[in-house]
Amino acid sequence: MTLELFREDGYLREGEATIVAVTEQGVELDRTIFYPLGGGQPGDTGYLTGQNGQQYRVADTRKDRDSGQHIHFLESVDGLNKGDRVSMTLDWDKRHVHMRVHTCLHLLCSLIDAPVTGGNISGNKGRLDFDLPEAPDKESLTEQLNQLIQAQHPVSMRWITDEELDAQPELVRTLSVQPPRGTGRVRLIHVDAVDLQPCGGTHVANTGEIGHVQVTKIENKGKGNRRIILELASD
To answer: Domains in the chain, start-ordered, CATH in brackets?
Structure first.
């Protein structure tokens, strides 16, 4: 399995890795700073620099569910070989936006007392679907979210075993996406005094880093399904 450096430190922007496989799609590395598509969060993009100094654009990152290897999709693999050392450079601005939105979705989840049935992040926007009979007030939600952001709650992570999670099923808020398993442990994201739940995504270290947000739309997606869409304010 690819060593997922971003799980321990979402702020890594650069790193070194070794190519373990070259395919028509791209390369697999022994370790990576690139988050793969999953849990509603897009796969990271960026660059790999080969031993010859040539740069290769990482157009997307995906994870093979069977092998646990991450595939870094490249426009070309010419000149890359198994065993080569490469330098990794993340599209940081894009990732940081995803981190801010993802953390804000945790805040939103803390304000809605209902199971989450779906979610997605796209650029500076994010949404969660809730098993909720009535739509909440959009303006009130916006105000509450910004209060939590401005309070600058620390955001941290810790690991628990699969058995510990099984003994606390109430920690899992999402019905459609289960937390990443397969290694015997699960990562918990803790927004101090606000939210605690398993999550494999990337997050900021403090809610103040999110910046001002706006709940832009609340949609009725069918019986008991309310979609809440939020957006980061322009920098």
So the answer is: 3-90 (2.40.30.130), 95-232 (3.30.980.10)
Q: What is 42-84 written as a DSSP string?
A: PPP-EEEE-TTS-EEEEEEEEE-TTT-PEEEEES--TT--TT-
Give me the amino acid identity at 101: V
Helices 92-111 and 138-150, packing angle to 10 deg? 120
177 confidence band (pLDDT: 50, 70, 90): low
pTM of the model: 0.95
Structural Rg of the chain based on CA atoms: 19
| Cα–chain center distance at 111 | 20
- pLDDT tens-digit map of 209-225: 999 999 999 999 888 89
Q: 50 with 19: CB under 8 angstroms?
A: no
- The dihedral through the CA atoms of 93, 147, 227, 231 has a sign that is negative
What is the distance of C-alpha 180 from the center of its chain? Answer: 12
